[in-house]
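FYI - complex with manganese (III) ion, inputs then prediction.
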Amino acid sequence: MAFKLPELEYDYDALEPFIDTNTMELHYIKHHASYLKKFNAAIEGTELEMKNPKAIFSEVSKYGDEVRNNGGGFFNHALFWKILTPNGSEKMDEKLSDAIVKYFGTFEHLKDEFSDAAAKQFGSGWAWLIKKNNGELVVTSSPNQDNPLMDIAPIKGSPILCIDVWEHAYYLKYQNRRPDYVQAFWNIVNWEKVGELFNK
Ligand code: MN3
């Protein structure tokens, strides 16, 4: 049972001008599809074919780098597409809004902390907003295609918001200006979706 590329819920040009059409198309068709293909190849004929990605990540240190890197690449991008939407969605779930105030003081503080984590992640990687098992919201980041569901992650939890800070995610439009890309990202966040993930 091979994993499949999730359908995009918007067109390649729908996130303009914040994420350009070329980047979106390459990112989905080339990068995401490539992680998926390699992930499927890595698990083919093994017991991992019968497991969901979260179960695999919870013991990912038992498997090789092919599973860790490509499984992460497959899952992380699928989540990233989901939490983006044209023009953003400002409908903030009340429970999520309360939790943001509880753990960050204000929404602006959350944005600052997350943007800072995204800017400072050295080299390729991701920044995350995660919900820990005790309900606490925490900002974290990870190198490469690691994610906070993996047993090797120093800070673990369920991701509810993420940003890809690999150069392939922004270089065509922003070149080396990663902070500008991160700033633009806030215009296209699907807060409705983030709220759903928070309440799961
Ligand atoms: Mn990417």
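The longest helix spans residues 21-43. The helical segments are 21-43, 53-57, 65-82, 94-104, 107-120, 171-174, 178-185, 191-199.
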